[in-house]
Amino acid sequence: MSAARPERGSALTVVGARMLSPTVRQIDLARPDGAVLPSYAPGSHVTVECRDGRRSTNSYSLTGPGRAPTSYSISVRVECGGRGGSRWLPRVPVGTRLRVGTPRGEFAPFPTRGVICSSRAADDRLELDL
């Protein structure tokens, strides 16, 4: 089955939602007809139109398998005093239709000789030869 490519701003339906922690909610989005969505590379994100009275869009990283997905998963930080998506998306119920952009990535992964694991501290890096 080939992926039906949603145009920028296509309507996807919230098909699942759960709290991953007290401050993070995962939201699963799918096409209303259940068709396969476009694949995406690691590090890609989608824009979601927020319906908080301002008609703004926010970007959210995609999580989960990116090859021929039937749904997209995003994680949203819950902030009671937040603006836009962090205030509005955590309350969106299953069944809600949202305008969601096509997956985009700001960088493309490239093959290396090893895997580099890093933390926020620049001197705390570990390189593994595979």
Describe it.
The chain contains one helix and eight strands. The N and C termini lie far apart (34 Å). Strand 7 and strand 8 form a beta hairpin. 3% of the residues lie in helices and 41% in strands. The chain has 130 residues and is mainly β. Strands 3-4-5-2-1-6 form a six-stranded antiparallel β-sheet. It has a two-stranded antiparallel ribbon with strand order 7-8.
What is this entry, summarized?
This protein is mainly beta and 130 residues long. The protein has one helix spanning 85-88, and strands at residues 10-21, 24-30, 45-50, 56-63, 72-77, 97-100, 114-118, 125-129. The strands form 2 sheets. A 6-stranded antiparallel sheet has the order 3-4-5-2-1-6. It has a two-stranded antiparallel ribbon with strand order 7-8.
Count the DSSP helices: 1
Number of domains: 1
Strand content: 35-45%
Distance between the termini: 34 Å
**Biggest sheet details:** 6 strands, antiparallel
Listing every helix as H and every strand as E from the N terminus to the C terminus, the arrangement reads EEEEEHEEE
Shape: globular
CATH level 3 topology? Elongation Factor Tu (Ef-tu), domain 3
Average pLDDT for all residues? 78
The number of E-state strands comes to 8
CATH architecture: Beta Barrel
CATH superfamily: Translation factors
Indicate the percent of residues in helices.
Answer: under 10%
Q: Major sheet: order of its strands?
A: 3-4-5-2-1-6
- Structural class comes to mainly beta
Give the C-alpha Rg: 17 Å
CATH class call:
Mainly Beta
Runs in which pLDDT lies below 50 for 5 or more consecutive residues are 118-130
Protein name: Phthalate 4,5-dioxygenase
Cofactor: FAD
Keywords: 2Fe-2S, Dioxygenase, Flavoprotein, Iron, Iron-sulfur, Metal-binding, Oxidoreductase
GO molecular function, one term: 2 iron, 2 sulfur cluster binding
